[in-house]
């Protein structure tokens, strides 16, 4: 929950456009943490062009203009097509390293200082990338991102639910037997319908016993019962999406009381039709119930968004001014798996940035 009570902001409203220019500039410069963003799903047209150039036999255009059209979000089926085309471009460890580092570069441009990137190693190792080489590639990129770009990356290894228990076993093996230094959590993605959460309990039990945090997707395209399953059977410490939580007041109460954060991804929810329109997004009800809400971008270029845009959307939906937006950024730090010192340092950066903005006064607020 934001520390500052949200209040109406002149110029924004349920049917208004993006927030005021001053607020957009504030968001752009704000140091941020992102907790729900996928590795392959973060490949921007620029990155895909670089990957396509490495693999001229691929069907994906390497020409930026053609790629821009390819990437224009049309519907969910088109998103899957783009996603799978990018998966097809990740063929060797160098592709993995390039993708990871370049994703961090796109994050640095948005002043994202810390990200827990959801990686699906099963997709790559199944396609023949050697598992040890995969780990070295992401770790290499992580270290370079930290030293060259000032972006701290941590990994969430997720089970692609649609690939069944074989993928769960393999993901647990990769997470626990080849555990890279940056790995902090264990997740579950893919479709929810027809993929009951409880079947993955043994794999989450093993991951949690090894000290990994539990962050499954739940309640995105199914009802609140899936979120209860994730809490009860998978020991969820944060919920990916959790959009349908608002249909169960007792669940909202439980999430608020036990400080289980929701990783909310507004534009993604519209793209996948989990929510019909942005104005109907239940974020406000989540906040009103006292749930710790974080704002995230999920698969940003594929949904035509980025984290800064998601913050602007959240500011409009919640009626936040710059202090409310800064509080939202602090929520992500609090909900992250950074250690206590890391949390304090990033929260202090956010506070210093917000204080400097306030001190500069309204005249200076639109100058940047
Ligand atoms: Zn996701």
From TrEMBL:
CDD domains: ADA (cd01320). It comes from the Bacteria. Its cofactor is Zn(2+). SUPFAM superfamilies: Metallo-dependent hydrolases. Keywords: Hydrolase, Metal-binding, Zinc. It holds the Pfam family A_deaminase. Residues 1-21 are annotated as: Disordered. The keyword Hydrolase applies. Residues 1-11 have a biased composition (Pro residues). Residues 31-352 form the Adenosine deaminase domain. InterPro entries: A_deaminase_dom (IPR001365), Ado/ade_deaminase (IPR006330), Metal_Hydrolase (IPR032466). GO terms for molecular function: deaminase activity; hydrolase activity, acting on carbon-nitrogen (but not peptide) bonds, in cyclic amidines; metal ion binding. The keyword Metal-binding applies. Coiled coil: none annotated. PANTHER family: ADENINE DEAMINASE. Belongs to the metallo-dependent hydrolases superfamily. Adenosine and AMP deaminases family. This is Aminodeoxyfutalosine deaminase. It comes from Actinacidiphila alni.
